[in-house]
Write a structure and sequence with these properties.
The chain is mainly β. The chain is built from 4 helices and 16 strands. Strands 1, 6, 11, 12, 13, 15 and 16 form a 7-stranded antiparallel β-sheet that branches. The protein has a 7-stranded antiparallel β-sheet with strand order 4-5-2-8-9-10-14, with no helix packed on it. Strands 3-7 form a two-stranded antiparallel sheet. Helix 3 runs antiparallel to helix 4. The longest helix has 11 residues.
């Protein structure tokens, strides 16, 4: 694990993904936790589950959540994704189970995470393949175009598959850290969430839904967007939870985390702006907070190394 990931990680018990994200100094998305609950609509008991992740390098896999089912993962043949197979339990018709993988990610540089999945019985597919749409978080800012202080958080939820499905969204905000147990159906986060769609909305291939949550600047606040997915006949397929935690981060010009302020910090900033974050331990190379990573950030780091205040 490089210093960039180590700096941003926080401890969770997780489901679908752990995104180690960051933004401009002062405001940081310090964690992203998702959980996928899937209903068994096959009409028979199943005892395995299979997931295929797209647009995610196998090198980003941190681990597989071992819950009701035990999972093992392997890279796909193209090297652009991976698969996870779960076994060791069973789910009756109409029942549900949760599944998850922990991923290293670093938005906004990553593509949307998306996946498809299906139930199996003794290794043989049962029922239809089910989509898991892609999603990602980006901040909204007072300056527009990524500049200025954050005013909220926006999530794009996109259908990258060929079939139409129905989506109903809920939103919740709560102080503190959220764990996987908080993201299960019928917990307080689900029951107390504000329903955004009075009835499910049709989401066709290539279409997306955008959800914006205002943020007033409180540190260590968590936000959860919950998506109930249905097929076109109204049968529930799954419930996807996506939660993030936002913190006010202090300015730290020691960008390589070696305990000193010197030319190596300037060099690490230059490397980060060229795409090499191996010596850069801060959440973002946007050191001046203007919403862009460019030469002005090198200038900012030079000034700080030479004694200028953050």
């Amino acid at each position: 694990m490089n210093a960039r990931f180590a700096r941003s990680m926080f401890a969770v018990s997780g489901c679908l993904s752990l995104a180690l994200a960051a933004a401009a100094p002062g405001q940081m998305i310090t964690g992203n936790l998702g959980c996928l609950t899937v209903w068994n609509n096959t009409g028979q008991t199943v005892n395995d589950f299979h997931m295929e992740f797209l647009n995610r390098s196998p090198g980003l896999v941190w681990g597989v959540v071992q819950g009701q089912y035990n999972g093992t993962w392997s890279p796909n043949g193209s090297g652009t994704g991976f698969t996870v197979d779960y076994s060791g339990s069973s789910t009756p018709p109409g029942g549900s189970a949760g599944f998850g993988v922990l991923l290293y990610t670093s938005p906004p540089h990553d593509p949307n995470t998306s996946a498809s999945c299906y139930w199996t019985f003794n290794g043989t597919q049962v029922g239809a393949r089910m989509p898991v749409p892609g999603y990602r978080w980006v901040p909204t800012t007072s300056g527009g175009g990524g500049g200025g202080p954050w005013t909220g958080l926006q999530q794009a939820f996109s259908n990258q598959f060929s079939q139409v499905f129905l989506v109903q969204r809920r939103v919740n905000a709560t102080p503190g850290v959220i764990g996987a147990d908080d993201l299960l159906v019928d917990t307080f986060l689900y029951d107390s969430a504000t329903i955004l769609d009075e009835s499910p909305v049709a989401l066709g291939p290539g279409q997306s839904l955008s959800t914006t949550i205002p943020w007033g600047g409180a540190s260590n606040e968590s936000f959860v967007v919950i998506y109930d997915l249905f097929d076109v006949s109204g049968v529930r397929i799954s419930t996807l939870y996506d939660a993030i935690r936002v913190e006010i981060a202090p300015c730290d010009p020691d960008v390589n985390c070696d305990g000193s302020l010197d030319g190596f910090d300037i060099e690490a900033t230059e490397q980060a702006l060229n795409g090499d974050y191996s010596n850069f331990c801060q959440g973002s190379a946007d050191l001046n907070g203007d919403g862009a990573e460019n030469g002005f950030d090198i200038e900012t780091e030079e000034q700080r190394v030479n004694g200028a205040p953050c």
